[in-house]
Amino acid sequence: MNEKQWPPQIDPQRIAEIGAEAKARAEAKAAQSAAQSDTVANSDDDLADIEKRILARRSACAEFEASFRATLQTNPPNTPCPRHPGIQVPVDVQASVLASWQYFMDYGERKRRWVLELCPVCAEIAETAARRAWMKAAGVPDILLDASLANWTPRNPADTASLAVIQRYAELRRGFLILISPGYGNGKSHLATALLRIHGKGTFRKMYAIMSEVRAGYGNGKAQRVVDHFSRTPFLVMDELGLTSGGRDELPVIHEILDARFSAKRPTVLTGNFRTADELEPIVGGRMYDRLRAATFAVVALTGPTERAKLQRDYMAD
Q1: Which of 145, 160, 240, 272 is the most exposed place for a label (fewest CB within 10 A)?
Q2: Burial of residue 103, with CB atoms counted within 10 A of its CB: 0-12 exposed, 13-18 middle, 19 or more buried
């Protein structure tokens, strides 16, 4: 066995190669650092340039908008509504500024692009049609689609006081409101519909219609789904309580719906032809009636004369 030579022999050529490799690595690292520094510097320069262009564009856009608005004040477009020639169509100023500026950015031409709104009459027609559509879908009868608090006229001082209570409930939107009267045609359904209109979403049903829908679901397993809908709808008008054909299922169904709404504090309006609210007890059950007494904002008794004659005239009118 040959012993290793000591001290080992030093190869000058290998030493030179190692030195060259170390120098190359150092130069490569230095070049990489320099490149990164140049990239950061270039990136900063690019961002600064982008910032300048954005600020310049925003300044130009502000000047353009000021000029546009000045022109609108001195020389507005003359655009009559095609359906209502005597009414000018208003300009959507902000949308017009944006559209005109975009046109300038795309084509380099300062040309005003007017964006028009609906004329006031067309806008009101569209709003009314949309409101009537959702109210009809909510179950409101056609004859009540235009009912509002504004178009219900108190017929005596007691009605005036009742309207004030109903207006306060419209602001509260919580708990129960009970509208009663001994006779018919006093405006209970009108006022209840007006409250649904103010709320903006919900359901209107007569009590017998609720029971009909529930019973129709017994055969296909959808009865509970119907009950759940009336329990959870954001605002419920249960009209004409007590006007049903009866049935063993009636009290449990009505109790379940009202109890769920009581627990969730969902606004609910009940109407019926009663002299006093105590007449509700046999319809909703003693337990639910006790809860109603705790959760009812007010019991409003409408005592004015019937409006049946006016309703008949309105019904027969074109």
Answers
A1: 160
A2: middle
